[in-house]
Design a protein that fits this description.
By secondary structure, the protein is α+β, with helices and mostly antiparallel strands. The chain has one domain: RRM (RNA recognition motif) domain (Alpha-Beta Plaits, 2-Layer Sandwich), CATH 3.30.70. The protein has 3 helices and 6 strands; from the N terminus they run H-E-H-E-H-E-E-E-E. Strands 1-2-6-3 form a 4-stranded antiparallel sheet. It is globular.
Length: 95
């Protein structure tokens, strides 16, 4: 898996904005990605030092479309902890 395929998009929520004060950033990642791949992708893509990675698989939800119930797909979330003093500029000015 290529490094640019690992990180799908940043997750920008109120909870994740509060985690930024602690040096933690959240991303949606590929379902096949593991902690080592996520760490390598963030370090290569954003030129920062990663000290920890937590990964969780988020279950899809049931949604109603008319009379039908459809299941949204499962996805994987990674919370990356950076070395003190490092920041990802992508998340700046997001409150």
């Amino acid at each position: 898996m290529q490094m640019h395929e690992v990180i799908r998009k940043p997750l920008i929520t109120e909870k994740n904005a509060a985690l930024q004060a602690q040096g933690k950033y959240a991303f949606e990642v590929d379902k096949r990605a593991n902690k080592n791949l996520v760490k390598a992708a963030v370090e290569a893509g954003f030129k920062v030092t990663v000290t920890g990675v937590n990964v969780v698989t988020m279950r899809g939800k049931s949604k109603r479309m008319g009379r039908r119930l459809v299941q949204t797909p499962d996805w994987k979330k990674a919370v990356v902890t950076l070395k003190a003093g490092d920041k990802i500029e992508l998340f700046e000015n997001v409150q």
